[in-house]
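User: Hey, quick favor. My workstation is busy. Could you predict this chain's structure for me?
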Amino acid sequence: MSNSFAAPAWFHDALAAPCRDHYVDVAGAALCYRTWGDRDAPAIHLVHGGGAHLHWWDFIAPLLAEEYFILAHDVGGMGDSGYRDAYSPELFVEEVMTVQEDAGLRDRKPVLVGHSMGGAISLRTGATHGARLRAVIMVDSPIRPPEDAARARRRGSPFKPKRIYGNREAAVERFRLIPDQPCDNDFILRYIAEHSVRETDGGWTWKFDDKVFATRLFGRGQDALAKLSCPLGVIYGAHSQFFTAEIIAYMRGLLPPGTPGQPQRR
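Assistant: No problem, here it is.
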């Protein structure tokens, strides 16, 4: 890992913060997770998005760890967690709860924060295990109207079959955000990219398992929302490509009044 690229001092300080790495078996796959901060502090569990990994949180978690105990894990089939023959929403929920128990959070009621696909995982976890959570926060993770979800299924996954690159640098340089978008913080993209690749036969490729995206694992978030038994918050960017006017209007009709971050009309 290289941290020598140009970045502000706060970023390097965050990466230098103490943390601990762990592995736990979940239904036959080894899951990697990382913790920061005082174990006796209130807990926050961070869940990354599709095709991503826990290192998306490496420069955020230490800032939160000043007041909280922070946990982040690599979802099965992504990052440094093991691959499976098949993936399901139920297994992703089991991973969340098993990692929390292994980290000593069974009776601690952490806040579960999920980004994008991680938000869908978090919502489903809250629908089935809400009594063991303080709250769920969905970050840039929309609940789509049925007709929009059907269109998304027809479009298929934005993740294409992985390519093999001749060397590590070529793979890192090919890293892109999905959806494609500008980013003023190149140092963040570089750091994330360096943790997104692994060496394999014939060269370097992305860490995630193509099979994770073989089918649309989520959708019908409204059903999970109806079963949610803990508080919910929503965070999304003003220029988010996921939160269209149609989705915002739909979610406004679904979310209970007073939901923190409830999408506002544009």
